[in-house]
């Protein structure tokens, strides 16, 4: 491989120094976010099954997941289910290792049903959801997705980058970024499987948050659906929205109490005496023909920070052993946090990999910091991050890339308050 390049400069750009900042979050019940989560959960459960069975992960990529296309008519007090939502896995996955076959279909089906039922409790999982297992073993590389021996899985021994890719990470989050994330988390809790599940039965889950800051003033607009069977008229609907708008304003005020910012929080805003009508039957706009696919929504931090540098990398559903976008997105995220906490500098990290080069170290790592740092300390933090979060004893891969931490939006609920 080419020698890896590490560049460090104190040229970090802080979005909070700008007069304008815009941050969006597509919530846990948004079709795009559900697609991201399902792709990742399916990859996770498959990887764990491989580790338990063989001690290493077989080749797979499930990062073209689709969720949507349903049709449910609703009106006040009315829910008419007409067409199921489709959950379609598009990708490639190994179904065997030599003569030993894995029941991949069962793993995928069970995972999809458990996650969707947790996130969308109003769904009839057997009738309102159609699962299409559209994966193959097709490839130009012989036995890549039908390995006959360990020689067909070279990355089990020595990982190499599967692609030329770019990954970007930033830390810390700005106040607006944390606010967008935390306000949506207000509506969620965890179930026994660790999956998010709604706190409020009368609300749907396809929530979107848009945060706009001009100077020190923040405008927050949320789209929050009400389940149609819980309201019989506009006045009942208005009372529910008014209640949660009040609760969320208080919650936002508490989050911002030690900052210099003031926020005005609105839900389903519409000029006039009523709120904009946003009702659903199951809880996601996937029931209205909307469609979600991997990579169209939030970044690895669970937000869409409009004024931040970013890549188009979509890590969800990719192989956690050697896929550049999966492994480096995770490690850069961890590294950025560790640099901030240990060296007290805000930072942005940009990483480039070259196809078939060694995965670690990558071809290029460029770190922009908010102050001067000792390069030797940064190198030591890089080494510690790799050793802690990408552990490969012999043939076993530690699936730490799937731990439930605040940077994984569909598996965690944010704690109280904004980080300091």
Series of secondary-structure elements, N-terminal to C-terminal: EEHEEEEEEEHEEHEEEEEHEEEEHEEH
Strand content: 15-25%
Protein structure class: alpha+beta
Radius of gyration: 22 Å
Uncertain ranges: 392-420
Distance between the termini: 41 Å
Instruction: Determine the fraction of residues in helical runs and give it as a percent range.
Output: 25-40%
Overall pLDDT confidence: 89
Number of strands: 22
Largest sheet: 5 strands, mixed
Read across the widest sheet, the strand sequence of neighbours is: 17-15-14-2-20
How would you sum up the global shape? flat
Put simply, the count of helices is 6
What features would you describe in this structure?
The protein is of the alpha+beta class. Helix content is 26%, strand content 25%. The protein contains six helices and 22 strands. The protein has helices spanning 31-54, 104-119, 175-185, 234-255, 324-343, 375-389, and strands spanning 5-9, 20-26, 60-61, 66-68, 71-75, 78-83, 85-93, 96-97, 100-101, 129-136, 165-171, 188-190, 196-198, 208-214, 217-223, 226-227, 262-267, 279-280, 291-293, 304-305, 347-353, 364-369. The strands form seven sheets. A five-stranded mixed beta sheet has the order 17-15-14-2-20. Strands 3, 4, 7, 10 and 19 form a five-stranded mixed beta sheet that branches. A four-stranded mixed beta sheet has the order 1-22-21-11, with helices on one face. A hairpin with a 5-residue loop joins strand 12 and strand 13. Helix 1 crosses helix 2 (104-119) and helix 5 (324-343) crosses helix 6 (375-389). The radius of gyration is 22 Å and the shape is flat. Residues 392-420 have low confidence and may be disordered.
């Amino acid at each position: 491989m080419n020698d890896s390049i590490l560049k460090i400069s104190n040229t970090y750009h802080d979005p909070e120094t700008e007069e304008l900042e815009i941050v969006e979050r597509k919530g846990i019940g948004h079709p795009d976010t559900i697609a991201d989560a399902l792709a990742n959960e399916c990859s996770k459960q498959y990887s764990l099954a491989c580790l338990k069975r063989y001690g290493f992960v077989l080749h797979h990529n499930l990062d073209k997941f689709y969720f949507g296309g349903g049709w449910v008519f609703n009106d006040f007090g009315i829910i008419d289910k007409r067409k199921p939502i489709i959950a379609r896995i598009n990708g490639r996955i190994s179904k065997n290792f030599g003569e030993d076959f894995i029941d991949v279909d069962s793993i995928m089906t069970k995972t999809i049903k458990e996650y969707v039922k947790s996130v969308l409790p109003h769904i009839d999982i057997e009738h309102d959801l159609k699962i299409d297992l559209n994966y193959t073993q097709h490839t130009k590389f012989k036995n890549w997705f039908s390995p006959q021996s360990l020689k067909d899985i070279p990355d089990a021994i020595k990982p190499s980058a599967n692609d030329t890719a770019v990954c970007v990470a930033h830390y810390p989050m700005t106040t607006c970024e944390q606010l967008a994330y935390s306000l949506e988390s207000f509506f969620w809790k965890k179930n026994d499987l660790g999956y998010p599940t709604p706190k409020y039965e009368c609300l749907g889950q396809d929530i979107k948050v848009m945060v706009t800051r001009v100077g020190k003033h923040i405008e927050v607009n949320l789209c929050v659906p009400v389940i149609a069977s819980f309201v019989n008229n506009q006045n009942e609907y208005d009372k529910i929205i008014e209640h949660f708008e009040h609760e969320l304003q208080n919650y936002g005020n508490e989050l911002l109490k030690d900052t210099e910012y003031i926020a005005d929080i609105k839900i389903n805003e519409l000029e006039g005496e009523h709120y904009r009508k946003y009702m659903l039957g199951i809880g996601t706009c996937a029931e209205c023909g909307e469609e979600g696919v991997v990579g169209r929504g939030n970044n690895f931090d669970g937000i869409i920070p409009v004024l931040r540098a970013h890549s188009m990398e979509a890590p969800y559903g990719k192989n956690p052993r050697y896929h550049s976008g999966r492994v480096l997105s995770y490690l850069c995220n961890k590294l950025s946090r560790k640099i901030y906490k240990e060296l007290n500098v805000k930072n942005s990290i940009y990483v480039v990999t070259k196809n078939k080069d060694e995965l670690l170290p990558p071809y290029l790592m460029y770190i922009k910091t908010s102050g001067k740092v000792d390069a030797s300390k940064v190198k030591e933090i890089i080494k510690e991050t790799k050793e802690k979060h990408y552990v490969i004893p012999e043939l076993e891969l530690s699936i730490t890339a799937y731990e439930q931490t605040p940077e994984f939006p569909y598996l965690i609920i944010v704690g109280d308050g904004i980080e300091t």
